[in-house]
Amino acid sequence: MKNILVTGAKGQLGSSIQELVKGLGLYQFVFTDSETLDITNEKDISNFFKETNFDYCINCAAYTAVDRAEIETELCYKSNAEAVQILAKTCAKHSCILIHISTDFIFDGKKNEPYIETDQPNPLNVYGLSKLKGENYVKEYLDSYFIVRTSWVYSEYGNNFVKTILKLGEQMERLNVISDQYGSPTYAKDLAEFIIALVHKDSKDFGIYHFSNRGNISWYDFAKAIIELSNINTTILPIASKDYKAKALRPKNSVINTDKAQNFLEKPVKNWKQSLAKCIEKL
To answer: Fewer CB near the terminus (10 Å): N or C of the chain?
Structure first.
């Protein structure tokens, strides 16, 4: 039976993985969060790996506050780069396969088509730079790894765009939402299923994979769909990025091409609206 370490277990993806594998009994999972395992502490990580012979480490832990990262730069890099370096070195030492979660924000958004795995990264903000540095550490220390880039993640758990729109929609008659940034929403449950498939198929096709739900949309249209599916009586109004005054720059187009992931799964990835409806049913 495979031993699998999951970091960031209280986040959206970590929680979704826990829910997905509950009662399956296929593998031995160890779920950790910042209270039970400090992944920025090399000694703690080393001791943890000595106690259990892990076959896989799924790193869901990350600093994801994109705007705050412009101010809390050191903290962002500590979680998204330095901690990943420690994990990668430790996984290499213990022959453990690392599945590391990354982001669409490593791209600058200047491409007019969906980004493929081999496109050149060029982050626009501190968060994206820190995640790219984390990716580079994984590639530096390991041959047996999966980097899974994803985008616009939402779920029943934690804080995310879907839950924010639902909350604000109940409180306000009008909501201004950015209409000139395009991406691919990702339901964390679908992402969890892809990650577990990497383990279950015992894949040796290591490298970078892009995963999101199918289709692309603006934040504005995404918000409209959320409100429509929830039957909330509020009006969604479009606003340009330049008028929003966010601290961090964001790519105008961060749509990712998921053909490689779909070929691996041997089936189409679910459409974003289909998965959004499932999530809202659970909220």
So the answer is: N
